[in-house]
């Protein structure tokens, strides 16, 4: 498994759609954008993707 950590997110290219690097990079860019938007609103962003799934993305934003 090829893993890289960028911007606090772990990208596991060996597990994303049969190690398709271009797709893995696109997913990373999209998730990074979501994480930045959550941070801009003082929120949190978490991705939990265990081997065998399911992947859970949690975004918490403050109210009020």
Weakly predicted, low-confidence segments: none
Class derived from helix and strand content: alpha+beta
Determine the strand fraction and express it as a percent band: 25-35%
Helix content: 25-40%
Helices and strands in order:
Elements: E1 3-6, E2 9-12, H1 21-40, E3 44-48, E4 56-60
Antiparallel strand pairs: 1-2, 3-4
Outline the structure in words:
This protein is of the alpha+beta class. It has one helix at residues 21-40; strands at 3-6, 9-12, 44-48, 56-60. The strands form 2 sheets. A two-stranded antiparallel sheet has the order 1-2. A two-stranded antiparallel ribbon has the order 3-4. It starts with a strand and ends with a strand. The model has no long low-confidence stretch (mean pLDDT 76).
Features:
64 residues, alpha+beta, two-stranded antiparallel ribbon
Write a brief structural summary.
The protein has 64 residues and is an alpha+beta fold.
């Amino acid at each position: 498994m090829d893993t890289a950590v960028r911007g606090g997110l772990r990208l596991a290219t060996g597990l994303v759609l049969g190690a398709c690097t271009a797709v893995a990079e696109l997913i990373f860019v999209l998730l990074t954008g979501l994480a930045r938007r959550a941070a801009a609103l003082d929120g949190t962003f978490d991705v939990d993707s265990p081997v065998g799934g399911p992947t859970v993305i949690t975004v918490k934003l403050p109210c009020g």
